[in-house]
Amino acid sequence: MSSPHHRICFLLQVRPERLEEYKSRHQAVWPDMLAALRSAGWHNYSLFLRPDGLLVGYLETPDFEAALAGMAATDVNARWQAEMAPFFVALQGRPDEGFLQLEEVFHLD
After folding, report:
1. Distance (Å, rounded) from C-alpha 81 to C-alpha 33?
2. Phi-psi group of 5: left, alpha or beta (phi > 0 → left; psi -120 to 50 → alpha; rest → beta)
């Protein structure tokens, strides 16, 4: 496998009344979901949550479109996204389809 070379950052908004539950769900991500993410090319994946519910996601991948498509093709992702969707405000589609991708304007290697 080639090494990751695209850094992706995205935003979502978690419902303030569901923050604690959202955090607890991510302390116990399903093992098959973790395996699917790795297999689809999601590397160095992190989620950061602000107290008002702003969620910042970061990942590295060789090909972001392929990483998204790889996850979209899995049953475990469909189940996880369906369970996570109610946690978000103003979501269009599934969480992995509705995040706002940010433009990288600086990187220090």
Report:
1. 10
2. alpha
| pTM given for the model | 0.88
3-state secondary structure of 73: coil
| Beta strands 6-13 and 54-61, pairing class | antiparallel
Question: What residue spans define the domains of the chain?
Answer: 29-101
Mean pLDDT of the chain: 92
Residues designated catalytic: 26
Q: How many residues would you count in the chain?
A: 109
Rounded CA-CA distance 9/104 in Å is: 8
SS (H, E, C) the chain: CCCCCEEEEEEEEECHHHHHHHHHHHCCCCHHHHHHHHHHCCEEEEEEECCCCEEEEEEEECCHHHHHHHHHCCHHHHHHHHHHHHHECCCCCCHHHHCEEECCCCCCC
pLDDT tens digits, one per residue of 40-67: 999 999 999 999 999 999 999 999 999 9
